[in-house]
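Tokens as discussed.
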């Protein structure tokens, strides 16, 4: 199954924040939405991603966040974050996420970002596919015709 199909089954909205918003505001959005990553924009252009890992990695560096500390000071900028392609199959996405040790993967179709998947989304989808295949095989084996 292609990752694009998984994205069609998910809510369309990808939660984002502006690069000049404060980290405190971003944390509020992440807690409210119960998500682990935000896409970072400058206007409508994607300029990075901010994940739980970015926050943890930078807490030590910054000692603690000032009230006015900006998202762009800790985000992973475009061009350096790992991304997937709409044509990737689920196994490739899982391999990329595992090898690169990322839990959130923006998916692009050319230059356009079409979604954001978490490792949980991918595992859930692969488990459903394996369960479906298992059921089909059991049915095939037990069918006397």
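Sequence:
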């Amino acid at each position: 199954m292609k990752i694009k199909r998984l994205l069609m089954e998910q809510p369309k909205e990808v939660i984002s924040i502006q690069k000049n918003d404060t980290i405190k505001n971003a944390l509020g959005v992440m807690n409210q939405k119960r998500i682990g990553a935000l896409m970072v924009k400058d206007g409508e252009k994607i300029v990075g991603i901010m994940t739980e890992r970015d926050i943890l990695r930078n807490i030590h560096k910054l000692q603690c966040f000032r009230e006015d500390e900006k998202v762009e000071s800790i985000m992973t900028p475009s061009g350096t974050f790992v991304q997937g392609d709409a044509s990737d199959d689920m196994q490739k996405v899982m391999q990329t996420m595992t090898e690169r040790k990322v839990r959130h993967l923006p998916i692009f179709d050319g230059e356009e970002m079409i979604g954001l998947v978490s490792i949980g989304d991918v595992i859930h989808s692969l488990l459903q596919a394996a369960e479906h295949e298992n059921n089909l095989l059991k049915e095939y084996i037990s069918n006397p015709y």
